Here is the input.
Amino acid sequence: MSANTGARFTLLSRLLHWSMAVMVIAQLLIGVTMVASLSYYPLLLAIHRPLGVAILVFAVVRLVNRLTHHPPPFLATMGPLERRVATWSERLLYVLLLAQPLVGWAMLSAARFPIVVYGPLHLAGIAPHNITLYAVLRISHSILALLLFLTFTAHMCAVLFHTLVLRDRLINRMAF
Amino acid sequence: MQPRDDSSDQPDSGMQDNQGVDHPPDRWLNKATLTRRGALIGMAAVAGVAAVDVGAFGYAGGWLRPDALTPSRFADGFEQVYGRHDGFRRNHAKGLSATGSFASNGAGAAVCKAAVFSAGTVPVIGRFSLSGGLPDQPDKPDTVRGLALAFLLPNGQQWRTAMINLPVFPDSTPEGFYERLLASKPLPATSQPDPQKMEAFLVRHPETAEAMKIIKQSPPSPGFSDSTFHGLNAFHATNDKGVTVAIRWTAVPLQTGQPGVPGASAGRDYLFDALIRAVSRAPLAWRLVLTIGAHEDPTDDATKPWPDSRPTIDAGTISIGAVQTEAAGNARDINFDPLVLPDGIAASDDPLLSARSAVYARSFNRRAEEPKRPSEVNVSEVRDER
Here is the structure.
């Protein structure tokens, strides 16, 4: 067993990672389901908004945590190119996790929708009422969702490839 | 036949030779655990997880269910029947923006804690419209008229409602509405719907046939300003004691029997033109009446009227003081989604509500992305005639 296999992410990092994994996967599925559903659209939208706010809060906490903590070193099973891809895909995920909720929030603002979190709890608008701006933000929200889904899928497949094919116990770094 | 030994644990090729002590140790891989079979199973597992992941995403998004009635297909239905008119609503395409206020008398607070029903006045954005997807259709007396309102509450909440001048809705389900929409497509030869298709539809949908009888009993008023607009769908209202009741609401005109709607011969936009002239003389007003449903009243079926004996609450006066040609930033750019509700009003189990919300959103997305053209109804043209 290599010396690296023992090194793990901090407990806070692991908690943040897995709680966000659950929230983001749920959010992606809720998002694509609701826009294609006549009967569940309002219910799913009522979950989608506060969940998006929660993801934004978690993403900010996570970014601060990432900037103040070093992750464990790469495993020896990762070559230089793969390390570079891993580094940049991590950065891309951070950008997407912060940008997507903000675009959603701005999009509702540009349509002059009230941004209901729960019951009487509302967020202020962060963009002017402008239907053209809304259109740009709405299309961006779909594109970012697709990018987020693809990046997540690539990340998951890469970790599973290491864990199930190379058997280098990569996933242990993030496991409990 | 001999059972084939496909165990890859046996070294059978140089590439997968994991037992080979002669080979130099690979600096990356833990060779003791890496076997051909293990690697294949691992790769199959990765591929399987990826397939489930992509498949779930695709299924949820409706891409693997081409026959499902999605909001997109619903919006497509309007485009099939009325054609595509860039920048306009897919239904109630012809319209006029309005502004005004709602003066609440406080009586509505007995059943609903929403701030809109405490005594006081809130600004309102409105839109008068004619049903159908043609933005320049000629006004006709029996075309369904709409009044949509957005109440802007002081705490950042909103209440949006889109009402029409029918006493009940013709359909009880979104599927029925969609079927009726397609059946109503005019034939090129007669410019009228195919009577056989409509008849077949009514046989399949007796609830629509019943609703049509009720609708025929209350013919439309001469104009917009003396029309009664009905919310039709039921909602749940909750007061500050936590008591929830089913409600429907109606905007009842305070101006009735007024002269000034000249009749269809007066022009293509005669209903809207009369409305513009009426508003320029004096603000128009409607009483907002809440009807309180009893336990046995249906909340999931907008084709069924509630008995006339149900208690009502006059909650205040909607006043429309100005109208504007549809333009950027006014009612043109508001989606009157019936499920934008303040705290205190909630959706009922009426299946039309969620479908309206979903399809309005799709229509709003489409028209937001399309180039815009000026609306048919032009306030300055009417004023200039005077």
Observations:
- DSSP finds eight helices and ten strands in chain B.
- The mean pLDDT of chain B is 90.
